[in-house]
Amino acid sequence: MKKLLFLFLSIITFSCDTNSSNQNPLEMKKQLNKDNKQVTVLVDVSYSADDLNEVKKFIKDEQCPLFFKIKDSGIIRFEWYIDQENNNGTLIEVFENSNAWEEIGNKVYDSPINLRFRELFKIEKLTVLGEVNEMFKAKIEPMNPKIRSYVGGIN
Q: Which residues, in sequence order, are CB contacts of 93 under 8 Å at separation 6+?
């Protein structure tokens, strides 16, 4: 029995990964000051107080399912946050790169889903974090976007 216990403990000891660099695997994935080319879009909106249920229904039953089903879209994140007391909200969109955002934007810009979005919401502020080509900048110019280029950080 002692031999069996010793053998078992030896196997466990030798099979454990002893990373000589003593770094957590999650830490190894972090990069310093390397632009990952993602584009993050923050859409701050307001809406009529009478439309809260309609707003929630639109978000959950129409807009999110549509974006979820788009094939090969490059969407990493598409999430809504609503402040019911002040009748405003923020949509956070994160895309793999500017090409993915532009491709989706071109698909939905004049679509029925976007027309409905414009009926329900007033865009108060549009902030784009990342690079955008000049042609797409011109297309979104009527929304008065605030475009920020990457400088540095941890990702």
A: 40, 41, 43, 75, 77, 78, 101
Containing structural domain, residue 106: 39-148
Say if 1 falls within a structural domain: no
Q: Strands of 39-47's sheet, edge to edge?
A: 75-83, 88-95, 39-47, 121-129, 146-148
Give 70-98 pLDDT, tens digit per residue.
877 799 999 999 999 999 999 999 999 99
Phi, then psi, of 5 in degrees rounded to 5: -65, -45
Contacts of 118 (CB under 8 A, 6+ apart): none
Residue type, 33: N
Q: Are the C-beta atoms of residues 104 and 95 closer than 8 Å to each other? A: yes
Q: CATH number for the domain including 67?
A: 3.30.70.100
Q: What is the pTM of this model?
A: 0.79
